[in-house]
Each structure stands twice: as C-alpha cells, then as structure tokens.
Write a structure and sequence with these properties.
This protein is of the alpha+beta class and 315 residues long. The chain folds into 3 domains: 54 residues, Arc Repressor Mutant, subunit A, CATH 1.10.10.10; 196 residues, Bira Bifunctional Protein, Domain 2 (BirA Bifunctional Protein, domain 2, 2-Layer Sandwich); 42 residues, SH3 type barrels. Helix 2 packs across helix 3, helix 6 crosses helix 8 and helix 6 crosses helix 9. It is elongated and about 75 Å long. The chain binds biotinyl-5-AMP (BT5). The site of biotinyl-5-AMP has 28 residues, from helix 5, strand 5, strand 8 and strand 9. Biotinyl-5-AMP binds next to helix 5, strand 5, strand 8 and strand 9.
C-alpha cells in the first residue's frame, strides 16, 4: 500500500484526526490529505468526516471491502497484494511478476476467466470467489517444493474451519467437506508452479482457489462453497487468515506434514490414486516427510508422490 495512505490509516486507528493535523503530521498539503482519504474510501475504507476530523473504526474486522489496500490493512504477514476485479488466471499473473523478480507478492481476484487446475484442467472461477496466487522465492531444493502445496492446503483448511466449515484435506491438495455417507464435496483446490534448477528453486507460485461466496449451482458437480456451508463470509478477513496461516506454515516447513496429518480425511481410507495411465487401489497409511502418499495395496506397500486421489466408499 502507498506509504502515505498506510500512515493515514495508522493515525486514524488511534482515533479521529483533523485534516490539517494529518497534513502537518505527514508533511503534505491538505488537498493531498483529502485526495488520499478519497482513494481509501474508494478502496472500501469507511472513513467518516466528523466534528473531530476524519474517523475510522480501528477494528480491522469492521472493514467490509475486498481490495488490495483493504487486504493489506492489518495483515500480519509480509505480502504485498495486487487485486483484480477480473483476470485470466492469478497464477499466470503471479508467474509474470515472479519472472520480473517479485517475491512475497499475492495476486487476488474476484473473478477468473481462464482459471487453471492441475494438468491444464479448467478451474471454474466466477465472481464471489477467493482466487489467489502467492509468489515466493524460498531457498529450498525443488524436492521440498511440494511442502508449499501442503502448507497452502493446511492454511486454507484452517481458515475454512475458522469460519465454521467442517473442512478437511484430501491428498494431496484438495480441501473438501466430508459428507455423512462417506462422500465429499470439493471446496478448494491448489495449483503450485515453479521454476528452478535441479538443486535450487528460483520461484514458486502457489495458487489457491476457494469457492467462497458462490452458489454451487454455478460450479461443477461435486463442488461446494463456504456460502453453501455457512452463509456469506467476509472475504477480506478470510484472505488475511489464509495468508497469515500460509506464512506461518512456510516459516516452519519442518512441521507442515504433521499439521497436514491432523487435518486430512485421506489417511485410513480406501483410495484409488490415478497416476498417469495406471490406477493404484489400497488403504492410505501415511504421508512421507516430502508429502508422498504411502499405500497398502494387494501387491504390497507403494509410495506415490503425485496423482489424483479418490476416496472409495467402504464396501
Ligand atoms: C485444482 O486442480 O484443484 C487446482 C485449482 C487451483 C485454482 C487456483 S484459483 C487461483 C489460481 N489461479 C489459477 O488459474 N488456478 C489457481 P485439479 O486437482 O486438477 O482439479 C480440477 C478439477 O476440479 C476440474 O477438472 C473440475 O472437475 C473440478 N473443478 C473445477 N472448478 C472447480 C471449482 N470451482 N470447485 C470445485 N471443483 C472444481
């Protein structure tokens, strides 16, 4: 966020301040103060003109806006946010920014017109969702990159639980809402892309797509949304929660798998994992330190590092 606007918000968080006082404090003209306040209002900040000056409710939960300054305000994680009403794919945009050297940059959109899933599958992303990609430049070998995907799945599941949704992780990266009959609906998906060499990651883009305030009728069969589960949510605080939790996870990569195990619905299930042309059926026993799934099959124990996993209903 623009430094002057951040300073104005910080000043107002302590109580009302008169325009001329703000101008003196920030060493800018009164007209400039007025222009910045108008920009903040347009971004969704509820700044009133009172007898005592400009006034803002300092509680970040009271700001009902979905925009870059609103998401950055009070965000306790070091990400810069770029917001788009509509965009092709936030992952594509984050990749472009990563190619230009960006780091710790989040790209957030209300709607995507060319959202992508894994293996170039289509990702349906109408207005009302949380479509977000975070670009990072970690100093890790490529073999540890899948931990970033698990970290995003953990963060998203925790944030969904924070708004009251009984979410769980389906290996490796789907956030689902389990149903009483053993079935489940997909709430969110994650797509991680990276560039690097054999021993070093150059950049990682972690794409997180959450069906937030969306009618599931407009989504593919088998999908659900936060709105369908618990009603309309505040996307601004939800995104802040995901970013803060993701940051916490990526700062402690050694414990990501343990947190993932706590939140998964896959372990203990009979599953089918499609790995390219073959399918493996077995009981999901555990995940390795690198996030690969360990299966007990009729032919013995197998470990798969990538694939599409389906929970099979008990026979
Ligand atoms: C994923 O792929 O689950 C990863 C989705 C990542 C989307 C985010 S949004 C922000 C960022 N920008 C992007 O362009 N992408 C990322 P996969 O496991 O391959 O699942 C894709 C399959 O999920 C599709 O083939 C559909 O069957 C289904 N699907 C598509 N849209 C969906 C939705 N909104 N909700 C639930 N399921 C959906």
């Amino acid at each position: 966020m623009n430094e002057t606007r951040r300073a104005i918000l910080e000043a107002l968080a302590d109580g009302p301040v008169a325009g001329p006082d703000l101008a003196t404090r920030l060493d800018i003209s009164r007209a400039a103060v007025w222009k910045h306040v108008e920009t903040l209002r347009a971004a969704g900040f509820d700044i009133e003109s009172t007898e005592d000056g400009y006034a803002l409710d300092g509680d970040r939960r009271s700001i009902d806006a979905f925009s870059a300054p609103a998401i950055e305000f009070g965000l306790e994680a070091p990400y810069e946010v770029e917001y788009h009403e509509t965009i092709g794919s936030t992952n594509d945009r984050a990749r472009t920014l990563a190619g230009r050297g960006a780091s710790d940059q989040a790209v957030v959109a209300d709607e995507q017109t060319g959202g992508r899933g894994r293996l170039e599958r289509e990702w349906t992303a109408p207005s009302g969702g949380v479509w977000m990609s975070v670009c990072c430049r970690p100093t890790i070998p490529p073999a540890r990159a899948p931990l970033y995907t698990l970290a995003a799945a953990v963060a998203t599941t925790q944030a969904a639980r924070d708004v009251g949704v009984d979410a769980a992780i389906k290996w490796p990266n789907d956030v689902i809402v389990p149903e009483a009959d053993g079935g489940y609906r997909k709430l969110a998906g994650i797509l991680t892309e990276m560039e690097g060499e054999t021993d070093r990651v150059e950049w990682l883009v972690v794409g997180i797509g959450v069906n937030a305030n969306i009618d599931p009728e407009t989504l593919p069969v088998g999908a659900t949304s936060l709105q369908a589960e618990v009603g309309t949510i505040d996307r601004r605080t939800f995104v802040q929660d995901v970013l803060e939790r993701f940051h916490h996870q990526r700062s402690a990569l050694g414990s990501v798998v343990d947190d993932w195990r706590e939140l998964t619905a896959t372990l203990g299930q009979r599953v089918r994992v499609d790995v390219g042309t073959a399918s493996i059926v077995g009981e999901a026993l555990d995940v390795t330190d690198a996030g690969a799934l360990v299966l007990e099959t009729e032919a013995g124990r197998r470990t798969v590092s990538a694939g599409d996993c389906e929970h099979l209903r008990p026979t």
